[in-house]
Prior knowledge:
This protein is mainly α. It has helices at 3-32, 39-62, 71-74, 83-96, 104-129, 132-175, 185-210, 217-240, 261-280, 292-299, 303-314, 318-334, 344-350, 356-367, 371-384.
Amino acid sequence: MTNSEYLETGFFSGIILMAFFHGMLLAAIFLFHKRLNTKSNKFLALSILGICVILAYEFVFWLELEDYIAVWIQYLPIYIRTVIPVGIFYFVTFLIQPEHKLSKFEKLGFVFIGTEVLLHLMDSAISLLVNDAMYELIEAYFILVSWFLSIVCCVLYLPLALRKVNSYQKYLYDHYSTTGKKSLSWLKTFLIILIGIMCVTIVSFVQYWFGYDDQGDTTFSIITIAFVVLLFWISYFLIIHYSWFEIVSITHTDSEKVPNQNKLSANTSHYYNQLLQLMTEEKTYEDVNLTLDKIADKLQISSGYLSQIIKENEQKNFFEFINFYRIEAVKKKLLAVDYNKYTIMGVALESGFNSKSTFNAVFKKFTNETPSAFKRRNVGVLNEV
């Protein structure tokens, strides 16, 4: 091995070892920290531990020491992969709905993990009972089954987790005027990256099984690097944005059930006019913490009924409906003499926004320009007049 190869091996093995200990510490925090050891985070810790086992093997692989460890330890990473997608799925499920009751299909995840554990135990036992030639044949079959199970888990549970996140985001926009730290857009990105890793895993499997090139070692190294990045990314959200793990949970109550269509049609106009009055006269939209339930209580109707009224008359969800009024208020204030001394963000805060990023995004969505560009353009027109 040349000096450059030694340096490369030392560099990558050092990063992998650092990520391994980092992941172990992260899992321990999720499991034992009083504030963070929720049901959802325990499943996230399970996935992280699965990644750590894979990283530990990669560390040994880079140092070319795999032949010096026991078979049952050497092949543990192969039979640990299902815990990653299954753990992530349960993490998402219980993060969004802590009291959720798993369906029979959702419980299959435990069956997949149990099957992997059984395969690993059988593999370890057989290695002690048969000769090397026979064991290599049986081992190849076990690896094929295990790899197939892990891919099936990824295909089933990661897209389903992504679907749950999308449903949660829709729930936010239907019930809250300000999403703020409740949003799970970061988790959506995280899941998309995991699905990308899954695709690379399939390529690695094909290379291994058909003996292409280096039998998947290169693609598996790419997976390893991706796992290292994900571990540090999770830490970023834990340390910098720990409150993002404490989102509002989805709740569906009887009060959200929409009345039958005849009753809804008969009362839509009356309640819709009352709703507009709340916006134009009482300026209810200025409440930073305004929710669908708050307005429903004012109108003395169910939140589901109110949501349907907004969608039928405005073709908007609750978030869009409220923030339309906020943006209109901002536009008027930006051009009003009384607000000349206000900063743009000051005007936004006066109109019901509490986040600069949300304000800028919503403003651009409704006006197709930034707040500062809108002010420059319109103030210039007023000055010319």
